[in-house]
Amino acid sequence: MKSFATSPAASMGGPVTCVSKVELRVSCKALLDRDTLNKSDPCVIIMVQAQGQWTELDRTEVIKSNLHPVFAKVFMVDYYFEEVQKLRFEVYDIHGTHSIGTRDDDFLGGVECTLGQVSCYVINHMLLVHAEEISGNNGYLELSFCAKKLDDKDLFSKSDPFLEIYRMNDDGTEQLVHRTEVIKNNLNPVWEPFKVSLISLCSCDEDRKLKCLVWDYDSRGKHDFIGEFYATFRDMQKISSGIKVSWDCVNPKYKQKKRNYKNSGVVILSDLKLHRVYSFLDYIMGGCQIHFTVAIDFTASNGDPRNSCSLHYINPYQPNEYLKALIAVGEICQDYDSDKRFSALGFGARIPPNYEMCLSFWHLWMLCPYRPEIQGVVEAYQNCLPKIQLYGPTNVSPIISRIAKLAAGEGTIKDASRYHILLILTDGVVTDMADTREAIVRASYQPLSIIIVGVGNADFTDMQILDGDDGVLRSPKGEPVLRDIVQFVPFRDFKTASPAALAKCVLAEVPKQVVEYYSHRAISPMSPGRGPSPPALSPLTSIPTE
C-alpha cells in the first residue's frame, strides 16, 4: 500500500482521476456463538496480499458478548484503479487479552475479495464491509462533546456513559460514525475530542440526520440505554456563531410512560473545528494549469542520428526511446494545459548557423516552425536532428534554474493558477552534478516538478541521488530540499511495458507535489470556472536563452 492518496490515472488522453482514500467499515450479523455461558466476543482482522504473501493491515476492537457487532474501527486504504488489491477479512471469537488469531481464539469465518469489489458492500452471510471514497475537498471535523445530568443506571455507583453517532443513509440503514471512550462513574462526562471526515459524518449533506445514542457501559456487553437524540451538521455549525448547541437526551419509553418526563440528560457540543484538506483534483478543477517543458539531450554520446545504433536514430517504423518517453508523459500532461503551448529545449549540441557550442540550452522552435500540442514537439525534435551537431557536455542545471526562475515569477501570483513540469531526457549521468543539486534545492521552493528519464544502457546509479527516495537531497552546502520534486527512472525498466506504465511511474508523485507546494504556501484552490485564463506565452520569448 502506498502512503499518499493521489496519483494520476494511467489512461492516455482520457479523463484523469486521482487515487482515492477509501474508508472500510465492518459489521457482522448472526455470528456463530462459540461460548458456553455467554455470547462470542468478536474481532475482525483485515489482511492484504503483496507479492503473493498475506500480511495483517489492521484489526478492529473486540466487542464483548455480541453476535451482531458494529465495529467503530475504520480501516483506511488507498484505492488504485489500475491494480488488483486483494483483501482478506477474518472474524475471531477472542478468549485472551494478548495476540488475536491465536490457537486460543475461535475462527468464526472470513471472506477474500478485492478492494474493487468492496466499492459498496461485501456480504458473506455474516460479514458486512462498507466502503466509502474519501474525497480531498471534503475536509474533516474535530468534534468535542460533553453531557450533563445523565440518568444513573447503576445501583451502587454512577453510570459509565459513552456516546455513539450513526449516520442515517438514504436506504434507511444506519452507519456507525464514531463511538467515544467510556467515562467511568460520571453523570456529567466530558469525552475526548475526535476527528471524522465530513463524508463519513454526513456524506457532505448538511441536513442528513445523525442518530446519537448514549449508553451506560457494561463489561459483559449488556449496555443500558440512557437516551437518544437526532442532530445534523447544520445544527452543529451554529456553534461557530456563538450559539450554544445542545440536545435533550431522550428515552422514548420513559417519555411515553412518564407524564412529566423531560429528558435523561443533556448532550452538549462543546467545540467544532473544520479543517479543509485539498486534493490534486481540487486544484485542477479550480483552474490550475500544468505547463509542460521538455529538455532533450543532444550530446555526442547518443551516437550519430544517421546510424541505426544511435539513440536518436529515427526509425520510420518504430519510435526511439526519446520519442517513446516524450509521447508517454507529454500526452498526459497536455490535458492539463488549455493552450498546449509547450516549451521544447535542447542541450549539449552545436547549433546553426555558426555551429558554436551552446553553453546552456536552446529552443527547438528556433530551427523549425512552432506547432502546439505534443505532436508539434515530436515534429520539432525530428526536424532539428539533421540541422545540429551532437557535442556536449551533459549540463542540466541551467535548464532547471531557468524553468525555476520562470515558475518563481508566476509564484508571486497569490493563487493556484499555474504549475510547471519539467521533463529531462538524457542518455547519461549529468556532468554538473553539484550545480544540479543546488538548482534542485532552489527549485523546490517554486511550483515545479522535475521528471528525469534515463535513455539507453548507461550506468545511472549516480542519478538516483537526485530522486531523494533514499534520503533527503541536499545542496553541496548541505541545505535540504523543501519538497521532494524529482522523479528519476531508467527507460530500460519499461522497454517491454506499455507507454502507460512509464507515464504512471514518472507522474505518480506529481499530484502529491502539487498539493504539497500549495499547502505549504497556504494557497487554496480557485473556484471552479473562475480561474484566470493561462497567459499566451510565446515559445521563443517565454524562456530567454543564455
TrEMBL record:
GO cellular component terms, A-Z: plasma membrane
Gene Ontology biological process terms from the UniProt entry: cellular response to calcium ion
Keywords: Repeat
GO molecular function terms attached to this record: calcium-dependent phospholipid binding
InterPro entries for this protein: C2_dom (IPR000008), C2_domain_sf (IPR035892), C2B_Copine (IPR037768), Copine (IPR045052), Copine_C (IPR010734), VWF_A (IPR002035), vWFA_dom_sf (IPR036465)
SUPFAM superfamilies membership: C2 domain (Calcium/lipid-binding domain, CaLB) (SSF49562), vWA-like (SSF53300)
Highest taxon, organism lineage: Eukaryota
Signal peptide (UniProt feature, chain positions): none
SMART domains according to UniProt: C2, VWA
Pfam families reported in the protein's UniProt record: C2, Copine
Segments for region (Disordered): 525-546
Domain C2, first and last residues per copy: 119-248
VWFA domain sequence ranges: 291-510
Family listed: Belongs to the copine family.
Protein name per UniProt: Copine VII
The organism of origin for this protein: Gadus morhua
